[in-house]
Specification:
The chain is 42% helix and 6% strand. With 280 residues, the chain is of the alpha+beta class. The protein folds into two domains: 109 residues, Glutaredoxin, CATH 3.40.30; 112 residues, Up-down Bundle (Glutathione S-transferase Yfyf (Class Pi), Chain A, domain 2). A hairpin with a 6-residue loop joins strand 3 and strand 4. Bound molecules: glutathione.
Length: 280
């Protein structure tokens, strides 16, 4: 039997478009737009261009929470960016997010309109704009910033690391799966210990940090993302599960999870959202 040749990196890496994997067709080693495409603009102050992945859900949960609080200025139109079709590389989207990733927000209530990209930045922008879901005291704010940034730094190991190698790579390779499974379990343990004696991540009050962390780690412990619930033994992180279930009781969280969803049972899909009545 011929032995598989060991991989030796070339002197200079070259783009191999045939590398395989679920997202091979949309991954490129260069930035910028691939085609001209104007983005649609609706009638509300906030225009969201997104998809109901965990990074998208953080923002739609926040917008629905703001509306639930009665903040009329948080009315929004949510348009679908289908990343599988490469819509994140359209010129209109790249003008709002040069990094070509959902979510991206345009606030048309300011003159000129304000663009915001990176889900953590969008959450902070909205929390500051509407003075909600962020502690008032600076020292408490620091805790909220810390957990928000923890999520932004940690989730790529869960999604781009573990999820990629466990669910999307063309073959199962033990080395990266072991490495990232260990890191994800460590992250779940961080959360589990922290939530042992707390209602929410920053104490008694629900904040943007909960929304951000829930979108990823709540999905992991409650919704079997990457089909990895058993493999990672998520059932053992009981405090994380209790906290995620508490969040999922909130109507705004339930609505936010549906916005820009373009897959799953027909009745759960909502590719675009333009009004509260879209949920009826
Ligand atoms: N750090 C970014 C990550 C956003 C991100 O990775 N978005 C993914 C979907 S969850 C995406 O748009 N991928 C398209 C691509 O990589 O081309 C954020 O939090 O906003």
């Amino acid at each position: 039997m011929a032995r598989k040749q060991k991989y030796v990196p070339a002197k200079v890496w070259k783009w191999d478009m045939e590398s395989g994997g679920r997202f091979a067709a949309i991954n490129r080693p260069v930035a910028g737009a691939t085609h001209r495409k104007k983005l649609p603009v609706g009638k509300h102050p906030l225009q969201l261009y997104s998809l109901a992945t965990p990074n998208g859900v953080k923002v739609t949960v926040m917008l629905e929470e703001l509306l639930e609080l009665g903040k009329k200025g948080a009315e929004y139109d949510a348009y679908l960016i289908n990343i599988g079709d490469g819509e994140q590389f359209g010129s209109g989207f790249v003008a709002i997010n040069p990094n070509s990733k959902i979510p991206a927000l345009l606030d048309t209530s300011t003159n000129p309109p304000t663009r915001v990209f990176e889900s953590g930045a969008i959450l902070l922008y909205l929390a500051e704009k509407f003075n909600a879901f962020i502690p008032k005291k600076l020292s408490e704010r620091a805790e909220c910033y810390s957990w928000l940034m923890w999520q932004m730094g940690s989730a790529p190991f869960l999604g781009g690391g573990f999820g990629h190698f466990y669910a999307y790579a063309p073959e199962k390779f033990q080395y990266p799966i072991d490495r990232y499974a260990m890191e994800v379990k460590r992250q779940l343990d961080v959360l589990n210990r922290h939530l042992a004696k707390r209602k929410y991540l920053c104490g008694e009050d629900y904040t943007i940090a909960d929304m951000a962390v829930y979108a990823w780690y709540g999905a992991l412990v409650l919704h079997n993302i990457y089909d990895a619930a058993e493999f990672l033994d998520v059932a053992s992180y009981k405090n994380v599960i209790r906290w995620a279930r508490r969040l999922e009781k909130r109507p705004a969280v339930q609505r936010g999870r549906r916005v820009n969803k373009a897959w799953g049972p027909e009745e759960e899909r909502m590719p675009e959202r333009h009004s509260a009545s879209d949920f009826d």
